[in-house]
Amino acid sequence: KAAGFPARKTLEDFDWDAQPAVRQQVAALASGGFLLEAQNVVLLGPPGTGKTHLATALGIVAARHGHRVLFATATDWVTRLTDAHRQGLLPKELARLRRYGLIIVDEVGYLPFEQDAANLFFQLVSSRYEHASLILTSNLPFSGWGGVFGDQAVAAAMIDRIVHHADVLTLKGASYRLRGRGIDSLPS
Ligand code: ADP
Ligand code: MG
After folding, report:
1. What pLDDT does residue 186 have?
2. Residue 32 — left, alpha, or beta (φ > 0 → left; ψ -120 to 50 → alpha)?
């Protein structure tokens, strides 16, 4: 899996009955037009609602349209950027990443960032702004991102750039993982 997808998940595999509200939005994104316009996609929702599934499926769509795609968790992206920064290679790495039409950042919000990491992540977002697409997933609403990035101002500046040209998809409901297991909901 050269693009780094954790598992192969497609739009065809997705059960729309579980997320009827986003069906039309996802169908529109599946044309791939968002990539040509460097638009972003943000998938928000509680655990198990299909954020990683849809991010992967849209990544596969992008690859089919001939775009280079990289998938990693937010934590992994920060590790990569930190390594590049330590070696004095951050500008070079950001330039290299700009050649990818789509970068997927999964799981923003599960782990908080250190201040330095938050700044590096902000630079990734800035370097792609109006140039190439990002897909981000998060279990937190935007209002909770300040706590993740440790700084309300950095979070606000980043969200501003992300959502200026973005589709925000809000997934709802119970975890698909727990279906049929007699478990109604997870602690929130
Ligand atoms: P999240 O990233 O939101 O925590 P995932 O995308 O990892 O959730 O989904 C958890 C599991 O349930 C995965 O195996 C995924 O393929 C499956 N899944 C979630 N939602 C759906 C759906 N609507 N249709 C089919 N499978 C789904
Ligand atoms: Mg996930």
Report:
1. 73
2. left
Is the alpha carbon torsion for 51, 55, 60, 62 positive or negative?
positive
Q: What local confidence, expressed as pLDDT, does residue 180 receive?
A: 72
Residue 84 sits in which domain range?
A: 25-171
User: Does 64 reside within a domain?
Assistant: yes
Q: What is the pLDDT of residues 57-109, one digit of tens each?
A: 999 999 999 999 999 999 999 999 999 999 999 999 999 999 999 999 999 99
Q: Which CATH number does the domain housing residue 129 bear? A: 3.40.50.300
Best substitution site from 19, 44, 53, 135 to test ligand 1's pocket, by max atoms within 8 Å of Cβ? 53
Query: Which pLDDT band holds residue 1 (cuts at 50, 70, 90)?
Result: very low
Query: For the CA atoms of the chain, what is the radius of gyration?
Result: 16
Q: How many CB atoms lie within 10 A of CB 173?
A: 15
Residue 15 in domain: no
Per-residue pLDDT at 142 exceeds 80 = yes
What tokens appear for 45 in the block? 């929702």
175 CA distance to ligand 1 middle (Å): 8
Ligand 1, pocket residues at CB < 6 Å: 9, 13-15, 18-19, 45, 47-53, 176-177
